[in-house]
Write a structure and sequence with these properties.
Blueprint (H helix, E strand, L loop, with lengths): L3 E6 L7 E7 L2 E6 L14 H11 L4 E5 L4 H4 L10 H10 L4 E5 L7 H17 L5 E3 L10
Parallel strand pairs: 3-4, 4-5, 5-6
Antiparallel strand pairs: 1-2, 2-3
Helix pairs in contact: 3-4
Length: 144
């Protein structure tokens, strides 16, 4: 029926796939467990980032692992999940239309998630980005 689904191996200690669903000129990218290592980390792979940017480029909706604040991430490098600032940077560079942050740390409260959303919005505003960001609650419906 004209639906195309592509996959990409993600950066996670266990195998994990990301998905790109293309239907009627709309693209949804679902990037589950994924770690965007800092450039100064020995595990940083510029080729991986370039491939991921291409995979999500121009997506109407990017649903992406945004587990940690930057402060939390410093103690959890290598766990397979990304900090908000890295996710925002990636979405902005890929010209994603709408970023949906998900896969939050189970110890985070709703207030913590709201704070991550505020941080993401501020980062995008500073970049004068066209990317919009959301932190949907359980049961939220979205029309693409």
């Amino acid at each position: 029926d004209g639906i195309t689904i592509d996959t990409m191996l993600l950066s996670h200690p266990g195998y994990c796939l990301g998905f790109r669903i293309h239907y009627k000129k709309r693209r949804i990218c679902y990037i589950t467990d994924n770690e965007l290592f800092p450039k100064d980390n020995e595990n940083f792979e510029p080729g991986y980032v370039k491939k991921l940017l291409k995979f999500i480029h121009g997506a109407d909706m990017l649903i992406m692992d945004s587990t940690y604040t930057d402060g939390e991430y410093a103690a959890k490098i290598g766990w397979g999940h990304s900090p908000v600032s890295a996710v925002v940077e990636l979405a902005h560079r890929a010209k994603v239309k709408n970023l949906y942050m998900f896969h939050h740390d189970p110890d985070q409260t709703d207030k913590d998630i709201d704070a991550k959303l505020k941080t993401a919005k501020n980062l995008l505003r500073k970049k004068k980005s066209k990317t919009r960001v959301f932190a949907p609650a359980e049961g939220t419906g979205v029309k693409v």
